[in-house]
Every structure is written in structure tokens, then in C-alpha cells.
Amino acid sequence: MTAIDRPAKAAFRTSRYDGIMRSTAITILVAGIMSGLAIPLPGESAARSRLLLVAGEETALQGGLEIAMEEGWHTYWRVPGDAGIPPQLDFSSSSNLANVTVSYPFPERYHDGSALSLVYWGHVTLPLTVEPIDPDLPVTLAVNARFGVCDVICIPAKATMSVTLAPHSGDDPRARVAIEQAQRKLPGSPQAGRFDVESATLKDGNLEIAVRIPDADFIDLFAEGPQDWFLGQPQLVSHDGAIARYRLPLDGMPEGETVSGRTFTFVAVADGNAIEKAVPIK
Questions:
Q1: Both 164 and 212 in a single domain?
Q2: What is the pLDDT of residue 47?
Q3: Are 179 and 47 spatial neighbours (Cβ–Cβ below 8 Å)?
Q4: pLDDT tens by residue, 256-278
Q5: Cys bridge to 158: 10, 113, 214, 263, which one at CB 3.0-4.6 A?
Q6: Pair (169, 230) in one structural domain
Q7: Selected residue with higher pLDDT from 153 and 138
Q8: C-alpha span between 180 and 168 (Å, rounded)
Q9: Are 125 and 251 members of one domain?
Q10: Mean pLDDT value of segment 57-74
Q11: What are the beta bridge partners of residue 109?
Q12: Number of domains in the chain
């Protein structure tokens, strides 16, 4: 089953987003069994999105929110950086739905000369794990989605769509391939002694982070702090052998808050591979 809905103009602004924002409409294709159409933004770019949903190996269904853009356009990671609009996905209008887990491939840094953003260029699929309340009944996945696509200008988009997938339905092999490809791009678990965030300690108002990195031509580290903490991103201080050391300033920590006892999530990248680890700060 396929449902197409043309969204209304978005009417929101993030406090950290200082680019030029214009509301427009992005058409979303939601595909339960069928893959979707590519519908460009009216008069602007050929940005397109589709929501894929297929049966899983056990009771959970597998899905993906795919965002495809023209060359040179980008959208944002779950932590957008100094400026940007992170994906905001509300599934509360769904039926027979116990939980949806949204996963994120690792992003890239983009500095436009004044601000650092964490972005996906051109195309990204966010894998979804969809857990039904009763696996023997159809699941209706309904989502209110907000996200931004940017080039010289940035467009905040709002869309509402839904799709129903019945148990034992036929499968779209193209949708399944797209979902599996997206899942392979997700950060994996740490590998002790080879690829791991080994420590994150507070020193002089910064977090000092030590990462054990395998041999690679390109490395990076992304950080996600507590909710509503508007922090920057770690900066590489040194890379000696297998240990890369980063420093994360805590200037954006809310007044009156403390770092001790909080948990930070780090995504470490080595060439095309990444790990993700939640680290409690002592």
C-alpha cells in the first residue's frame, strides 16, 4: 500500500539555526509494499523522500526514512551542530504500534565559514525498527515529519503521512535492499582494544576524550550531550599511534548544571567505519 501526502508549510524555527529559512512543501512517499516516486520541490530542488516498511525476521518490522536531494544539498544529523534543523519524527498517531526506534548513520562536518553543521550530503536513509503491539494484526505507521534541506537557502519542511502493513504481506525487494544498505551504514558497537572511546574526563572546563582508532586515512569524532545542552563538537588535539585525543568545550552547558553523572554519546569514525558509545562522566 502506498500513501502520498503533500505537507503544509512548516512553521517552526530552531533557536540555533541562523541561516535563511523559507517554508515550502516536500512531497513524501510512504511505501508499505511498493517503492516510491521521485517528486521534486516545486520550483526549487529535486529533493524527495519516501518511507519504507517491510516485514522483519521476527515480530518487529523494518523500515527506513529516505531523503534524496540534488547535488550540493544537505540535511542534518540528530545533532545538527551550530546551525540546522534535526529530523523531528512524531509517530504518536500510529495504530498497533508499541515503539519505533530511529537510527542514524554517522554524518560529516560542514563549515560554511561562520558555523559548523553535522550533515548528510545528497542522500541518506534513517533505518527504523517498528515494533507492533500485536504482531498478528496490521500496523499503521503514521508520522508527522519535520526536517530541513539546505543549499544556499534552507527549507524547513513539514509532512504528515501514514501506511498500513498487514502480517504476511508481500515484500518489495527494492525496499528491502534499500533498508539493508542503510543498516550497514550505522555505527557499530565498540571493539575493546581496537576501536573504542576509552575515556572522557572533565578538565579545565572541557571534556578530554581518548579514542583508540584502527589504522585509517580519515578519523573524526562526534558528540551528543544531554538534551537541551547546546555544545560544540570535539576538536582533534593529537593523534599518536592508535590513540586520538579530542577536546570538547562545555561553553554551552546550561547555567547551574554539572557534567558529573551525565552521559555523553560519542560516534567515532575511521574511514568508512564507525562505532557509537554512551559514556557516563564521573
A1: no
A2: 62
A3: no
A4: 889 999 999 999 999 999 999 99
A5: 10
A6: no
A7: 138
A8: 19
A9: no
A10: 89
A11: 118
A12: 2
One domain for residues 52 and 156: yes
CATH number of the domain enclosing 262: 2.60.40.10
Confidence grade of residue 228 (pLDDT, cut at 50, 70, 90): confident
Nine-digit cell at 152? 544556499
Structure-block grid coordinates of residue 229: 545542552
Q: Which domain holds residue 84?
A: 2-184
Asked whether the beta carbons of 179 and 125 are under 8 A apart, the reply is yes
* Banded model confidence at residue 28, pLDDT cuts 50, 70, 90: very low
- Least Cα distance to 83 among 74, 94, 93 occurs for 74
Domain assignment of residue 224, yes or no: yes
Give the separation between CA 258 and CA 21, rounded to whole angstroms: 34
Partnered with residue 206 across adjacent β-strands are 203, 249
Please indicate, yes or no, if residue 24 is contained in any of the structural domains: yes
CA gap 18, 16 in Å, rounded: 6
